User: Fold these one by one.
Assistant:
Number 1:
Amino acid sequence: MAAARQLPLVVILGATGTGKSRLALQLGLRLGGEIISADSMQVYQGLDIITNKASLEEQALCKHHMISFVDPLVTNYNVVDFRNKATALIEDLFAHKTIPIVVGGTNYYIESLLWKVLIDPEKKTRPLGPGGGAADRRLELEKLDGQELHRCLKEVDPTMASRLHPHDKRKLARSLQVYEETGFTHSELLQKQQEEEGGGPLGGPLKYPNPCILWLYAEQAVLDKRLDARVDAMLAAGLLEELRDFHRRYNEEKVAESCQDYQHGIFQTIGFKEFHEFLIEEGKCPVEQSKQLLNKGIEALKLVTRRYARQQNKWVKNRFLRRPGPNAPLVYGLEVTDLSRWEEKVLEPAIQIVNSFLQGQQPPVEPIMLAHEPEEDKRRGHECAVCNRIIIGDQEWKAHVKSKSHLFHLKKSLKSHLDHHSAKCQSSITETSQTCAEASSGNLEA
């Protein structure tokens, strides 16, 4: 086999429901690799069904890492913690000539393993939980009003402030924390990172020299139906019992004290907060009402899951397929629309691609690329004076100025301006008429 450092880092991308975990398991078995989960919710203990963790049987077949090792009450575990632990695992697997197979889910977790970063203000040895140091400072900042955070950031780092919305308290707090702990602005560090040899618009240089990126994709309509069916399968597998138990053990008391938090830790899991009303009202309201709340939660879960799948695909297209810089690794696509052709269309091509990387050869298929659109900046800020809103991203701005809401406020603003102008003109005419009348009266008297 090739030298350890030449082994590929296999990364399986794709929207939820495309079969990433299935392919990872099969590749692990066929190639003797081990699987590293890059899902921000799977690191926590609990909610195994809703976070779609590999079953114990699957974990017994092929070794899985980064699953169920963080206490669910910890809310300050973050991407830096993940990156440090996962990177050490990858290095260890390479040293033992074992292929690491990263599979996920969480965009910034995957990015932390692909690209080197210079921004790391948080202490590597900080404890988790109360007294966690840097993470606690970020949480402290997040308690401030979004407008106040945005104002503070604008004073020290106007460039980064222009890229962030006042509602995005987490990123605002993160940028302020970077400045407080490093003495450099977030935008300055990002610029240095991009200018480093091998860096580019996506960030610093690639961390590993031989990344093998596989992207599973399907027709959206087919994937939507598959995701709805998966929610139904989760319910059949005991999802409600899992949610009830987790709520009773970890969230019921918080709700009673009005201090529940669906923005941090495992509590932000897609599928938990969607059942909030059902969980707090069950047994306290009529059965029919409880059923309605349950159905509402189920439909909300299906909707947010479909929406999340679209966000994941959008990220892959923007960060990889449009190749916005020299440090964007090639991506090889595998279509999973027809699951009956899995072996032919997915598994065998995936094995061929990985084997090509192992042998230092060109894969038998061409990578997927989309036309790059350099004129569009997804982080550029636009201020709409008409609607009194800040819009982040060129695409979002284009959509906003065409929206019914903007056009309504624009029409209303123009009408107000015209009315004001008309009233001003009328007032001027009246004043002129009065002046002329007074002058005329004075001439007559003379």
Note: The beta strands are 9-14, 34-38, 64-65, 100-104, 211-217, 331-335, 381-384, 389-392.
Number 2:
Amino acid sequence: MSTETGNTYTVDTEPAVESIEEIELNEYDTRPVAKFVVAFLIGGVFFLLPVPYQGEVTVPFDIVVSNITGTFPDAVGVYSLAIIVAGGVLTTLAMVGDGEVSGYDVSYFETSTVFWLLRVAGLVLAPVMFFKLGPGWLHTPSTGGLMWNTLVYSVGVIIPIGAIFITIFVELGGLEFVGTLARPIMRPLFKVPGRAALDSLASWVGSYSVGLYVTRNVFEAGGYHKRDVFTIATCFSTVSIGFVGVVAATLEILPLFPLVFGAYFLCVVVTGAILVRLPPISTTPEEYIAEPDPEVAFSGSPTDYVRLATSEAVGKAEAGETFAEAAKRGFVDGLKLTSLILGTILAVGLAATLLSAHTPLFDILGQPLTPLIAALGIPNAEVVAPATIVGITEMYVPVLLVTETATKAKFFVAVLAVSQLIFFSSVGPMIMDMFSDVPIRFRELVALFVMRTVILLPLIAGITHALAALGFL
């Protein structure tokens, strides 16, 4: 039973826990089984299959995105300019009109005044970045060049391409299968539905952009309440495995990649398990924005979970769209979402990177941490300390600060930079804009960044010293 209050819904009573004998399983007819299996393989291959490429091991998704942005940079630039301008214009029309322009419904683009202004700022900045107008310092590789040529281009391509394959995977049974199998871990550890494992997996192997796209779709379908979304967006919007490799390569510790990634995984799990039990996450209401569709309460053996997961997946595949319909809808939804957030990312991200590059703010903020870093036994404390703070602007900046430090300092910062998760060149404004109906606010993201950092500093220091004692560092 659920109760509707205004535009939100709450679940009145928790469903009784059922066993496999009490659940009516779907019949495994040939056609829906084939749809699920093919969709699962398509998603699995595209996002998960390791393949050698240009001397590295990566996944097809990364290869496709890299080839598009690397082979057609001018076309991607025009596309990015056009979609940011479209987002700014359509948002303005939605905010000043009645939600409809020449018969086209633009209510999708309605937002708060703050994000309207940020999208308009993005609209103004996009031509400046595209045509390289203004002073040279605006377009350096660590400021405008990073934002426009790397982050804007990547996010602009990642979301619509990723949305095609993730929609096929989700709509034809993949979400039910992964979510059911993950319930025994996700609910006790992180207090979220098992289906949240797919959002996290999409971030690990693809991009936080794809993970957030999945979260938004499930939220709009009633599969998550607001606290679920807050948890997933701020604790599981992780950087991809590939980017962890980039960080390790930049610091010339690529041979230590398995250790860096293992430490990163542990840090994300530990911080997530702690933060979901603390404000602001724990105080977020359990309200849905659509008719609630919570997971079936279930208890059974591992075999029972596999049976239920397969049944749920086949049932979803049977009722779901065709492959072509899912792909088309995913691409269109991906383009619409990109038009919403890309201008915001450009405006906020450019401000953050300029602040980091041209003011002493983060050096000043980092100075009080120097004694703490030294007390934790991390070498080059005076360099590492600012790196612990500057990651709030862009996750890659701390890495660039410690390229000339000792190996232990490099390892410490590499793991810290990718584990802090919240940064305002991209994921911060993306979360605030995509989930303004939760809402997830700027001050809460800053507080969570600080909380994550407080947890991570001693944790990563302990991991660093343990690995050094074992002779790995």
Note: Residues 33-344 form one domain.
Number 3:
Amino acid sequence: MQLMVVEDDEQVSKALVAVLDRQGFDVVKARDGASALATLTPATDLVLLDLGLPDMDGFEVCWRIRKMSDAPVIMATGRSPVHARVKGFELGADDYVTKPYDLREILARVEAVLRRRRRETDEALDGPVVVDGVTIDLATRRVLRPDRSEVALTRKEFDILGLLAQRRGSVVRRERLLRNVWGSGWKGLERTLEVHVASLRRKLGEHALVETVRGVGYRLATTE
């Protein structure tokens, strides 16, 4: 698994990398926010983010990461823990550790966050998803109406619906849909995404499974 360590203190960075290397992680280093954002890829499984970076505020870096990726983020800082923790969680961070920290604690938190993410993924992929009588079978890539007739979807239409089904009611950002379905986060593709969502809705007919979350993305409707 690939972990990114965003830390401008070379001594701290080296110690973190040494510990993570010993645990078998593929570690990528970044000294500031700009290089972290430039280095982030779909292969990044987790980000260890120091908030005290030289070029931009760590909270802004977290916000930008969350716009680009759903990789878990663990924040580290010596700032006021309550205020920073709340703000970090609001921006989409998954965990928080206060400096100075023990390297064993960092490792334990990394493993805990990754376990939680694997559990969420396993639960999301555990069998077909049924909403309003419509069955979305992720394994066979089939969508069945309540009368068991099949909805004929294109590959990208199913990729969109399948990703929403995996999250089961959680909002999936446009950026993530673009990266997962089209392999790019380019803003110019947003209109293409909207066209595919509109086509998907037409094919599903009366079953309003795809909900728009204005300014953010889409989610699969939840059952009552």
Note: The chain has eight helices and eleven strands.
Number 4:
Amino acid sequence: MDDEPEITLGDPAELLAGYLDFYRSEVLRKIDGLGEAELRSSRVPSGWTPIGLVNHLAHMERRWLRWGFRAEQVDSPWGDSGNWTPERPTAEVLAFFHEQCAHSREIAASAELTEVARAGGRFSEDDRPTLGWILFHVLQEYARHAGHLDISRELTDGSTG
């Protein structure tokens, strides 16, 4: 998806799904054309790298949808913590990202926005958010990090937009 969802779209579930896909593509577009050195170099004091940010977003989707909403037992749900330059090859990070996005799409399509997350994964019986809340949280993560990538890309090679 290259464009935002249609301006006439009013269904909240379709709107969230459309904007999530829009920002997923924006993140990939922001790193498209960067060489391996640029993908693994930081332009900011915190030290995150473009490929590290993609890795973070993949783990974030997994934490919120698979481990969070569905309460699936997943290996290393916080596997991105403090690791802004993953050791895995770029192709593996991108494949992991695409895999997690596909899982998230399937989960979002299979439940109502008002459905509450299962207990036993990320959440206990007392702190379970709705799917709508989770998807909105994931969307704001993407919007924020796409902006970070805008700045990083401009500092790297002058590309904007």
Note: Residues 12-157 form a domain with the Four Helix Bundle (Hemerythrin (Met), subunit A) fold (CATH 1.20.120.450).
